[in-house]
Amino acid sequence: MTRAAIIIPHFEDLARLRRCLAALDQPGREAVEVIVVDNGSRQPLTEVAAEFPAVRVVIETAKGAAAARNRGVRETTAPRLWFLDADCVPAPDWIATALRLADSADIVGGDVDLFDETPGPRSGAAAFEAVFAFRVRRYVERVGFAVTANMLTHRRVFEAVGPFAPGLSEDKDWGLRARAAGFRLAFAPGLRVAHPARPDWPALLGKWRRLTREGFALQGTGAAARARWAIRALALPPSALVDAPKVLVSPRLAGPAERLAALRVLFRLRGLRFVWMLRQALGGPV
Q1: Where are the chain's structural domains?
Q2: Among residues 242, 264, 261, 241, which one has the least CA distance to residue 253?
Q3: Which of 85, 162, 198, 249 fits 149 for a cystine, CB–CB 3.0-4.6 Å?
Q4: Would you call 205 exposed, middle or buried from its count of C-beta atoms within 10 A (0-12, 13-18, 19+)?
Q5: What is the pTM for the complete model shown?
Q6: Percentage with pLDDT > 90 across the chain
């Protein structure tokens, strides 16, 4: 009997997908099915399907990770739905831990560790990500959502909450809807995946452009929502000063060069986000 389905959206990232699927060859694998939903990659996944015959590959032509995840849910009847990202590397005990923890809450958010794919020294972007990316405990316990890079839930929960919404920060939107519906969310530090840090400024900039667009869409576009967005924008420059000490004392950074590089990115990125968000509040693009 299939106890759970692991749903992995994919787009143009074959090497990391292979790494993710290889890492899922671990104890408990026979109890779960793995569904890879390709989101229209130029190179078909024929070779990947041949390398991993126990993995089911489907294609979703509607763009976006939300559409891919929704398609994965429709492709299975499993009572438990587990979500990973194609660029994540699940820990060697991920499936066994997920089987043990899956019923401990309606939604379980696992932790995400960062690692560097490129040799040192770290870029400013990678150093910044080491401190500020994937603060999953905070997301779960203070904001009210789990990241879909490492999330467990149940079909009954998904059917009650509804599908992921495209064009938004879909994991945040879905998690907040689930919490509003009364479902219980828990953080599981022992359920771990590793995720590569953005290696350089262009990659980090692309990530935050996308997050800024999705965050604005999540807020709404009415006059009151735009005013709230502008107020949030005004808080960004001083927030860099507030967060600077986290860079200076973070055990994840090695030496003054990495800390200085991360500080530069912190102030530069918060300044850019301030400009972007004010532009959005006034009706302009990002």
Answers
A1: 4-196, 201-281
A2: 261
A3: 85
A4: middle
A5: 0.91
A6: 90
